[in-house]
Amino acid sequence: MRITKFAHACVRLERDGAVLVIDPGSFTEAAALDGADAVLITHEHADHLDVDKLADALGRRPAITVHTHPDVVPKLGALEGVVTAVTSGEEFSAAGFAVRAYGGWHAEIHPDVPRVPNLGFLVEQSVYHPGDSFDVPAGAHVETLFVPVSGPWLKLSETVEFVRAVGPRRAYALHDGLWNAAGHQLTTSLLNRLGRCEYARLEPGTDVPA
C-alpha cells in the first residue's frame, strides 16, 4: 500500500490499482482525486470537504463512492445519491480497503463555537486519520498515524499526548497548512524528542510506504 500526503488534511492510499482518498478539502490539490474509487470525509469543515472538487471528480468517474457521518450527508447536496452514512464503531469496505470509524465529535475550538460530528478512520488496521480530533482508536495496532499539528482547537502538548496514547510505529503531520516554516521546524523537533516514535512532516505530493 502506498500513501501520498496532499496539502493540509488530505491523504491518498493506493493498493493494486484501487484508490482511497481521505478529506480532499479546500486546501487540497485537485490531483488528489485523480482516479479515486472512494472518498472518506471526516467532517463538514471546508478544509476537509470541498463539494465542488467532489462533484468534478464524480463527473469524470461516476463510480466513486463517498463515506461520511450521517450529519454530513445533507451538506453534499446533489452528491447525496453516492454517499454512504457511517457511524462510530462501524466497519465497512471502501475501494476494497477495510475501514473502521472511530470517535464522534470535532475537538472543541471554544465553548461558544458549536461542535460538529467528526469521525476518525482506521484503514486496513494500520493507517489512522483522526480528522479534527484526538480520538484514540482503542484496541488498534496503528503502524502509521497522521497527527494534527496546527489549528485553533489544539496545542502541542495535546498532539504529543495523542501520539503517545496511540503508540504508532511512525507519525506524519496532518492539518499542517496553518504553520509557516518556523512553526513546522519547531513542531518537528519537539515531536521527535517527545512523541516516542518516528515523526516527519511530508511536503504535499510526497509518497511513503504504509
Summary of the model, kept short:
The chain has 210 residues and is α/β, with parallel strands linked by helices.
CATH class: Alpha Beta
CATH-defined fold name:
Metallo-beta-lactamase, Chain A
The main sheet comes to: 7 strands, mixed
Give the helix tally: 3
Number of domains: 1
What is the alpha-carbon Rg in Å?
Answer: 16 Å
The termini sit apart by 6 Å
Order of helices and strands: EEEEHEEEEEEEHEHEE
CATH superfamily: Ribonuclease Z/Hydroxyacylglutathione hydrolase-like
Question: What is the percentage of strand-forming residues?
Answer: 25-35%
Q: How many runs of DSSP E, i.e. beta strands?
A: 14
Helix content: 10-25%
Spatially, the strands of the biggest sheet line up as 6-5-4-3-2-1-14
Shape: globular
Would you identify the regions where 5 or more consecutive residues have pLDDT less than 50? none
Mean pLDDT across every amino acid position: 97
The appropriate CATH architecture is 4-Layer Sandwich
Q: Which structural category fits the helices and strands?
A: alpha/beta
